[in-house]
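Give me structure tokens for this 207-residue protein.
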Amino acid sequence: AQAELARMNLDVPAVTARAQRAADITHQLLSDPRHSQPGDKVRLGRALLLRGRLERRGGDIEPALATQVETAQTLLECGDQPEALDLLAQCYGETGAMLQGNGEVRDAVRAQGEAVKILSDLVKASPGRSDYRLALAARYGDLAQLLRENGQAPRALDYQRGAVELLQSQLARDAGNVAIATTLARLRADLSDLLAFLDQKPEAMVQ
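Here you go.
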């Protein structure tokens, strides 16, 4: 909670220190069965995920990647808990973005693909959760960008269209959701650009 408050105040050093402190405390709890609680591993995963994001923001890419590996290992031990799976999808998405920045496109595609699989299952299990649909559409968009960069533009088009269609249907049910509307506008622009790149200009103009 202190780390989240510091993040809202844009105090990055304080956030990093408190996220690390949260991870240390949870590690201690997990090592002592007298005090450990069922949700401790999920809490540890959340703290590690935040620490990895902050390391990435600070330009410490290699430590951030190592932290996200630890995050994934921790969350994979939580089984099929929805909260843990949601965090795990975020972890894979973060990892994919960092790998992409390092020019490791194939590994980035695999990481984003894992995030898509997890979120697809969460959407099927909880079709009313708009946050899962929004996250899945964002990962579709990221994966489409990676595939395009890797010379697989036709395959990228399937994911880009899927992202737009997913949010169009969600926005029809939740017209006042600004986050969905904003993300949909960006994804539509990306789809139009991709269609033009593939020389499908009439459809690109419609988008």
